[in-house]
């Protein structure tokens, strides 16, 4: 790939998969996209076979390319992968950083429901959460406090 930047608002802007090799797919506010992920999205026609290792990258790029139907299609698989006490904090930070608003409520709900297990499994990730995104950490703490104060 050469250094040419391709700015686009929808996957239909690029007509052939061969074009991928000529462009570095990049949003002004985001990192370069993996050409394999980009090609998969360009070929999307209602069915999308995404390897588990590329779920995050595919969902992130689909959101950047304004493909909400793809995001909704991938959301359940990503939530299954994300929703473990050992991984939920990193997925929360990732989704928050990339403004993946459709994922955040489910990720937050899992975190809140399993916060004790999260703290036991990966206490250092709680430190990372408060350091990297204090507003999100505060929101989660306020929600926990409200839930604990209810009868």
TrEMBL record:
<dbReference type="InterPro" id="IPR011333">
    <property type="entry name" value="SKP1/BTB/POZ_sf"/>
</dbReference>
<keyword id="KW-0040">ANK repeat</keyword>
<keyword id="KW-0677">Repeat</keyword>
<dbReference type="GO" id="GO:0000151">
    <property type="term" value="C:ubiquitin ligase complex"/>
</dbReference>
<protein>
    <recommendedName>
        <fullName>BTB domain-containing protein</fullName>
    </recommendedName>
</protein>
<dbReference type="InterPro" id="IPR044515">
    <property type="entry name" value="ABTB1"/>
</dbReference>
<dbReference type="GO" id="GO:0005737">
    <property type="term" value="C:cytoplasm"/>
</dbReference>
